[in-house]
Amino acid sequence: MRTLCSSTLIGEFFIIGFAGLVAMKDPDLSTSTVWLVSGIAMLLCLLLCGMVTRPGGVALGWALQIALIASGVVIPTMYFMGAIFAALWWASVHYGRKVDEAKARFAAQAEAGSSTPDAA
Predict the structure, then answer these.
(1) Which one of 12, 79, 99, 113 has the lowest number of neighbouring Cβ atoms within 10 Å?
(2) What is the 3-state secondary structure (H, E, C) of 58-84?
(3) What's the whole-model pTM score?
(4) Rounded to 5, what percent of the chain is helix, strand, coil?
């Protein structure tokens, strides 16, 4: 799960950076405000890469997805991008857990197979 979720978060890191560049063109927003908000969101993406398997990591990832969709208020394209990344986040969590379960099953089978004596 960690690999899939981290890949999604790194993609979001770049999308948030590009969205910050677009938001700078808005005359109603100050550059410092844009980069403060974008920088915090980008930092959260990086921190979540390491926290995704810890308790609350997935929930924080969902909060980030909601914030990304909500950023469509400032940059309307982010409604679409946020929805895409929310779908990617769901897929990363869902299929990542399935992969982790399969790995655990294979490891248990390998352990059970290696503990039986050879009949040679």
Answers:
(1) 113
(2) HHHHHHHHHHHHHHHHCCCHHHHHHHH
(3) 0.84
(4) 80, 0, 20
